């Protein structure tokens, strides 16, 4: 029986400002509200997991090494500011036909196996329909669509999937 719960986060648009294909440290900016949110999850015993599509790799905009260097930078920033890091970072560099690329649930299922997770007790926060669909496909019931300042034309489709819409991570925290 799985014993751990997790908070899954998409990267671009949730953790950091989405400037389109972010891969350089100088372009990476955390959203201020992310720190309080991730701290609350950590304090309540959640594993912290990033699940992110990174099609810029297959498109040739940057390399896996670039992505890994930026991920290490992100982890270093969190360690310095918060005293902890993400437990795991999963990414899919492909554009098509991958069980890992969201909306498929491969990254979430891999995290479940790697970290002994109970997905029924886990959360996912994403900013796109593909994030919410991946959570549904994996069996995560607590699905949050972070809209920030943008309008989602996908909301009608998402109504059939089930999610909760939020506009900021300010004050967002787990209830279980």
TrEMBL record:
Site (Stabilizes the phosphoryl group): 52, 102
Binding-site list for Zn(2+): 92
Compartments, record wording: Cytoplasm
InterPro entries to which the protein is assigned, alphabetical: HAD-like_sf, HAD-SF_hydro_IIIA, HAD_sf, Heptose_bisP_phosphatase, Histidinol-phos
Cofactor field: Zn(2+); Mg(2+)
Principal location: cytoplasm
EC nos: 3.1.3.-
Site (Contributes to substrate recognition): 101
GO BP, sorted A to Z: carbohydrate metabolic process
Annotated family: Belongs to the gmhB family.
Protein name from the UniProt record: D,D-heptose 1,7-bisphosphate phosphatase
Organism: Helicobacter trogontum
Source lineage: Bacteria, Pseudomonadati, Campylobacterota, Epsilonproteobacteria, Campylobacterales
């Amino acid at each position: 029986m799985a014993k751990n719960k997790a908070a899954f986060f998409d990267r671009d648009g949730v953790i950091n400002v989405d400037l389109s294909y972010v891969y350089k440290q100088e372009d990476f900016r955390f959203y201020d509200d992310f720190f309080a949110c991730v701290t609350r999850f950590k304090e309540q015993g959640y594993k912290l997991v990033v699940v992110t599509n990174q099609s810029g790799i297959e498109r040739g905009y940057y390399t896996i090494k670039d992505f890994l260097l930026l991920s290490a930078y992100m982890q270093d920033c969190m360690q310095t500011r918060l005293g902890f890091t993400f437990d795991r970072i999963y990414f899919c560099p492909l554009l098509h036909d991958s069980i890992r690329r969201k909306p498929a649930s491969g990254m979430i299922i891999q995290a479940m196996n790697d970290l002994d997770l109970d997905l029924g007790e886990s959360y996912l926060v994403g900013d796109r329909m593909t994030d919410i669909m991946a959570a549904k496909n994996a069996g995560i019931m607590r699905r949050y669509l972070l809209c920030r300042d943008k309008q989602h034309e996908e909301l009608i489709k998402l109504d059939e999937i089930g999610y909760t819409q939020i506009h900021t991570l300010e004050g967002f925290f787990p209830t279980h």
